[in-house]
Each structure stands twice: as C-alpha cells, then as structure tokens.
Write a structure and sequence with these properties.
Length: 91
C-alpha cells in the first residue's frame, strides 16, 4: 500500500519517491491511501500524477482507499484536467 504522508511538498517528494517505487514494483494491485494528506503543493500533485501514470504504465491496477479533500481542492485550483488522475480521485 502507498500511504501518502501528511505533507507532500517539494521538500518530501524525492525522499518519498525512493520509498514507494519498490512497493509499486512488488505488487500487481496498488492501494493508495491519502487519508493523512493535509498539505500538498504543485510538485506534490505532479508527483501523485507521475505515480499514478507509472502504475498504469506497468500494467497494474490501482485501488484508491481514501480520497483526500485536500488533493481534490489542489487539483481543482491548479486546473488539472488529466483524465488519468481525475478518474481515481473524483467522485
């Protein structure tokens, strides 16, 4: 399971990327939990989009366990309309 931290900003992305790549490579179904996400910046949103894109490119299934209102609001504020990410976080 990928559990995003409470803060996912430019300061945390590099460190967090190193932690989650092995999780993606070791599983066929990837569960994503963003329930603790309280703060995210533009780089954090781009990181999540890259993670979701990578998972799909690997032919793996995504199960979104929690849908953070912080992430939804950030996506709306940034005007992101990428269908890959929206299909997982929007109701």
């Amino acid at each position: 399971m990928i559990k995003f931290p409470s803060d996912l900003t430019i300061a945390q992305v590099d460190e967090y990327q190193a932690q989650i790549l092995p999780l993606i490579d070791d599983q066929d179904v990837i569960t994503i939990d963003d329930s603790e996400l309280a703060r995210i910046d533009t780089i954090g949103v781009q990181f999540i989009l890259a993670v979701v894109t990578y998972i799909i490119a690997q032919g793996k299934e995504i199960k979104w366990q929690s849908k953070s209102s912080v992430l939804k609001e950030s996506i709306q504020q940034l005007g992101i309309s990428d269908a890959i990410l929206l299909q997982y976080i929007m109701d």
